[in-house]
Amino acid sequence: MYRNRPEFNEKMKELNFKPKSRLREFFGEMFIAVNAFVALIAIILIFVFIFKEAIPIFTDSEIREEVTLEKMTFKQEFYEGRDAKWSWQPNSEVPKYSLLPLFIGTLKAALIAMLFAAPLGIGAAIYSSEFANKRMREIIKPTIELLAGIPSVVLGFFALIILATFLQNTLGLTFRLNALNAGLALGLAVIPIVFTVAEDAMTSVPHSLREAATALGANQWQISFTVVLPAALSGISAGIILGFGRAIGETMIVLMASGNAAIVSTSLTDSVRTFSATIASELGEVVFGGGHYTVLFFIGSLLFVFTFIINLSGDMILTRIKSRFQGKIN
Amino acid sequence: MAVKSKMSDHKLIATNGLEFKPKNQGYFPRGLSFLAVVIIILMLAIILGNIIYGGAGTISLEFLSHPPENGMEAGGIFPAIFGTVFLVILMVIAVVPVGGFTAIYLHEYASPSSKITRLIRVAVNNLAGVPSIVFGLFGLGFFIAFIGGGLDSIFYKSEDPIWGQPAIIWASLTLALLTLPVIIVSTEEALRTIPNELKEASYALGGTKLQTITRIIIPQALPGIFTGSILAVSRGAGEVAPIMFTGVAYYLPYLPTKFNDQFMEMGYHIYVMATQSPDIEATKPILYGTILVLLILTFLLNFIAIYIRSSMRRKRATLQ
Q: Average per-residue pLDDT in chain A?
């Protein structure tokens, strides 16, 4: 009926529908599908190409004379008669490739960052999702987005020039650039991640749970702390996990603010050198394909695998929450 | 008596062990969480205030339009601005179609529960979490050594590398991979706002799937793709680690004109000036000025993206 009307034909012409072509449909879908696989292929290529450059550590006899897995992990006696120690000095006469000082440095900076960022991020998320009125929320969220939008090189600059001087003067520190300074600046980059994931987890707690608590006579804060927080706990932990992944991998902030000294110590006010900063500061000067080059790619592989596991677990937690809240309760 | 105990049994089950004491108003946790907000806002204000205070005096037309002079202690940052813009334009050209089509595939073609879809989603989420320095390593190993070196050995017989060296094209492709998840996520958000009725209307008129996608879906998703591009640019313009080994240079006497030229970039400019300047006091005005320009650029882009996104959400709210 409708097809016989003139409006229909005009509409068809206007929308420019041509007769169907199966071939075009097929190639169109193929083209779109090929694009969709770019992300997957990219992840695989990153994995392959970074590991490929690190493999000589295990296979190439010439490089194995300079560096092996054992030399990177255990204490080494570099000169006769001296004590064995862990040392990262790739450019010295006897190159020293112990990864322990870098590992400690990375962990120190990341832990300080998390101690600083997790309470602030979660606290702000609690306030934003539980207590803030609409207008307050419209201030908080863009503020956090603004913080997230600051390039890490700018945060690094701030830590290097302003924060380091402030900390040294107020705490009377020996080293101007140290783990504390780098960790605090790193925390500024981590806060938005913790906040966003935690807030998302709390606001996605089904309304029926809140209503049930209200019906039982709970007031606003009792709802928040006995119902919403426990339900959102795994989401909040996912936020912490993802934030930790960012803290481990972040480069420019630690490169500029940490002092870059590879020392084995437990003090939080000593200078530190992290994995990421080591790659950034040394890759420019290495011999292509040499021992040092291979070790830097090995460190890159470690970073990749480590952040991959962290992101995967954070992701899995979030997916599980989503299916739980959407599947069973609603 | 018996009845009473039964009642309290019921109450126990109903509250599941939670006892609500009416007097506790929770002022302490409320105050504590509010304090967190105040601290964050205060820190942001200190950072921004410091940079605006330090940089506002430097920015002038001359600063924006002149090359650096006297070992970065005088002159402007025009080559760094030019390099940054060139870099992100190449990046957007590379990443937007790929990211847009990925989102369309995930939303329109793939079934949400299939293994492939889940695998792609896992890959996208993980790509967003790969450390930026690892992207730099990848750009060096894959784009420069493998692709560039491969091109050189196949097509050119000269001693000097032509493509197998750090260049703006490799830096922009590395950044494109880094920003791919940004485009995918924001395009998908836009795709979700398209009401099913539009698609159904297209099918009812005899449109095929591909026709529906090219004439209905893509035009409707354009604001989302645009938002994603802006966010990607703002992210890409600030990243330094991925481009350190793939093409950026601290000082070049010429502007990049070819794809295999090196380039200057604002973020890297900031990094080198802040860490390797022989006389930090002399470079400070230029340093602050560069940071302020970079911040204004990224914030402006972010504001535009946030505005478009919120108007898109409003539109969705009225449609549903």
A: 87
